[in-house]
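Support request, please re-run this one:
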Amino acid sequence: MRWTITPMLLPVLIIINLLLLKEGLIYEFLLAAQVLFYVTVLAGWVIEKAKRKVKLIIIPYYFFIMNYAVYRGFLRYIQKNQSVNWERAKRG
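Re-run finished. Output below.
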């Protein structure tokens, strides 16, 4: 279920926090934490492009990339560009 529910809930959480922003301090904190998470993802992307490894920043980046891959794979499947069969990875 983590591969189907988590990717779909990430954008929903931002929308919910934006809608609840005026309801209390906790929602401001949660939205700030989400924004910080996505800033960390962006920093992880920059660090990855620079071919460096900073574990505390790379972990959120990989979490985001894995969930992004679910979206991309689902979109390719819907567009009939993705087979549902597994293919063996080519080994060097």
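The radius of gyration is 17 Å. The mean pLDDT is 84.
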